[in-house]
Structures are given as C-alpha cells and as structure tokens.
Amino acid sequence: MLNVCRKGGSRTQVFHKIDFMDPLDEQVLDHFKGYRNSRPVRIGNDAYRQLQLDVPGEVLEAAYNYFNIGGHIGHRIWGLLESFVNAACELWQQPDSGIWEVRGGPHHFVHSKLMCWVAVDRGIKMAEKLGYKRNLERWGRTAQDIQDDILTRGWNSQRRAFTQHYDTLAMDASNLRMPLYGFLSISDERITSTIQRTVEELSSNGLLYRYRTDKIDDGHSGSEGAFLWCSFWLARDLLRMGRLEDAIALYQRLLGYGNHLGLFSEMADPTSGEALGNFPQALTHLEVIITGLELLQAMQGKNTAAGRPPA
Questions:
Q1: Where are the alpha helices (DSSP H) in 136-262?
Q2: Fold for domain 2-224?
Q3: Which pTM value belongs to this model?
Q4: 111 in Cβ contact with 175 (< 8 Å)
Q5: Count of C-beta atoms within a 10 Å radius of residue 160
Q6: What phi and psi, each to the nearest 5 degrees, are found at residue 141?
Q7: Mind listing the pLDDT tens digit for each residue in 54-74?
Q8: Does residue 254 contact residue 235 with C-beta atoms inside 8 Å?
Q9: Which is more confident, 284 or 215?
Q10: pLDDT by residue (tens digit) across 6-24?
C-alpha cells in the first residue's frame, strides 16, 4: 500500500490501473447490453478524479494496526505517513465525494470528517511511541477541532442521529463505523441512537442499505441492493454493545450470502438473496475476516471467563 501511496503522496488517487500507469478515463460502451441487460456498461471510473477524504484515515489506520502487531515504521515510512496526517489537517474542512464516491456532491460527509480524525488520532499515537514530537501539539488541536465540528454539525438533534452529511436529514450506514474507530464510546447515547435509527430506516429483511437512494442525490438513477459491507459493521457494533449472540446470528446469516466458492458480492437483494453489484468484492471479504476474528476473540474470552475450553 505504501508503494502505491509513495507515487502520489498525500494526494494519492483512490484507485489506479493495475500497472500504475495513467488512469483509465471512464467510457460508456453503448454496443454492449451488459449482464442481464444492465446498461450502461462502463470501463474506467471517473471517481479517480474525486477528492475522498477518508483515504488518509484508511492509510493511517492500516499503519497503526501494522505498528501495533510489531511492524517496523522507519524514518522514511514515517515521513510518508506524516504527510497523510498533515493532508488530513489541511483538507478536513473541505467538502468531498465521500466513501461512496457520489456524483451529486461534494458535501461535508460525516464519515469523511471521521476518517480525517482517525488519521490525526492514529498519527498522534504512533508519533508519541516513535518519539516524533514536533507535530503533536498542532495535531492534537486539529483532532479536537474535527471532533467538535462533527459533534456540532454532524449530530442532528431532530433525528437523534448523526446524518450522512451536514446539510441533510438522511441516514448513512457509514456512520456505524464511529464506535469501531473509538470516536465515541459504544455506550454514548448519540451512538446508540444513531445505530437504532440506522437500522430502522436502512434495514430491509435484516440487511442494510448504505443509504436510501430516494432520499439523496448521489448522481445515479435507479435503486440498488443492500450493501453487505454495512451489515458486517452492524454485527461489529452489536458485539461492542454486549449483544454477542445477536452479532453471531447476524454474522452467520451474512455468511449465507457467499456462493459455493465462499466468494461474496458487493450487494444483495434483501428479498431474493441474489448477488448484486461488483463480484467478488474485496471490501465484503475484508469484513468477513475482521468480523469473524472479533467474534472468535469474544467467544474465546467468554468461554475463558466461564471456565470452558476455547471454542
């Protein structure tokens, strides 16, 4: 990942061609009908031009986890990571296109602000352990400013929830990540209320949509399936709420949406269970692994406390 990031620094685009050459501009292939007549058929993706402010947070979170399991962060690598933290400090007040790469923006997405906070927070924690002190005071002020801004402008007292962005009442499942990154405690009333509201408004037959397409302008037409990624976030939140059995039940149900090879799609039809969207989808598989590991650890801890052999 750092080899990719090194090519573009803190302004690294969100994706690249497989050979890292010039980006592939988006084109519509009108002469193709697409799978089951699912026009338009496109190659390339103009989203590579977008500003997506969750990128610094994803990079720093990955580095932070790597560091915590004993990975070596040398001076050169730290210089690159430092540039991402500084980018988050510089850009966090700007609107962007967000994690979902919407084409109806840009907006001040709550999740994007959250990930800028993650970048700065993880940068501070690593810098303290590595002995790099020159930015700590400035980064600390910025982390507090970002958190204050989210709590002031992202929280909607009318909805009793954190909304998708600062100028909407619509919900977005990406805000389920707030407690996963330690932005607020899972016991915080604002978090529990947001989770409840998200399930109430975005759930269909036990699966979560990322948002309601009829509530926001994402620059696309038509409807879509439920995002499996989001339902795994909910399972991880349930685990943190102490609802282990509910988390396990949801996880086991989600595993049922894999095919006979254990591969998962991006979305699923909540009614039929049919796979929809990109296939296979790496992000879904990532959550299968992370959620499974967290549940296994919780089950082993429960068995240990009860004096039973590990599961």
A1: 136-149, 189-202, 228-240, 244-255
A2: Glycosyltransferase (1.50.10)
A3: 0.89
A4: yes
A5: 14
A6: -65, -40
A7: 989 999 999 999 999 999 999
A8: yes
A9: 284
A10: 766 656 667 777 776 666 7
